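Predicting holo structure, phosphoenolpyruvate bound.
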Amino acid sequence: RRAEFAALRDLPAMTTDGVRIQLMVNAGLRDDAAALDVTGADGIGLFRTEFQFLVSATMPQRERQQRLYKDVMDAAGDRPVIFRTVDIGGDKALPYMKAEQHENEENPAMGWRALRLALGRDALMKAQARALLEAAAGRTLHVMFPMVSETWEYEAAHAIFEDQRKWLAARGKMGPGAVRYGAMLEVPALAEMLDQLLPKLDFLSIGTNDLTQFLFAADRGNPKLAERYDWLSPAILRFLARVSAKCHEMGVPVGVCGEMGGRPLEAMALLGLGINRLSITPAAVGPVKAMIRSLDVGAIRAAMPPLLEEAPRDLRQRIETWAEEHGV
Ligand code: PEP
Ligand code: MG
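Done. Tokens:
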């Protein structure tokens, strides 16, 4: 079906009832931007900036970061690139940052990582903010923060960016034309605070990889657990349904950038919960777009609430049957 997927490249990710879905790709390296042209995706919905740090022998200095961000934005052209600030620490340990990391953490995924580490070491965060702001010169910068657990963490990160923006302006340097700020929802506690958090955001992006490991208390890297908990389980879908509804109620765009969105059946369920932005691995764009173009999204949106109310144990099977019966 590869040729069939390739033929979809220039066709819009539009459902049969005329809803345009934003289909973006996850990326992390300079060359990944080429995936935009190959897949025909609408942009980069998650640019994992820590990749540059992970492949470097020494800490990438601000100028090097800036060059990478500019190259990626240049390659993307008019298509948006959502840069995620560094998610390092924990299991993504950097040899040149040992002193910053608490060694021998028992639970590194829940440890000193991502925004926690970046706020604890604000020179790192400031340098990255400067690099992103200057790289975006004259354009719109999209930035989001990983592992936000409480609203104040988002506010602190936002303040660092805004301070750097003022600093640039005061020196007559060109910053971005506009900045769109987002948070990643990966820590379940944040879902209880959306009424306070959402008014401060331009968008929310749900990282289902980390989110599901925390919802089920199941290490995402443990092969024994890999098949045990299903993305199409009632608990996850009910959780995501509430988050999506809250975002719609408050008028904040919401998307999913975890691997879940890269599987056609899971992606269909997400669309059924009101999510209409997905950022997925480039190889999944064809299959997911084919699903979207065969889907009546109004019908799946009507089908999901009773299914989640009933919450059958074989929910995956029921969703699959629905898809078959509706020609998806
Ligand atoms: C996630 O956790 O779902 C996510 C997109 O981030 P990462 O996979 O980089 O942790
Ligand atoms: Mg994550």
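The chain has a mean pLDDT of 95.
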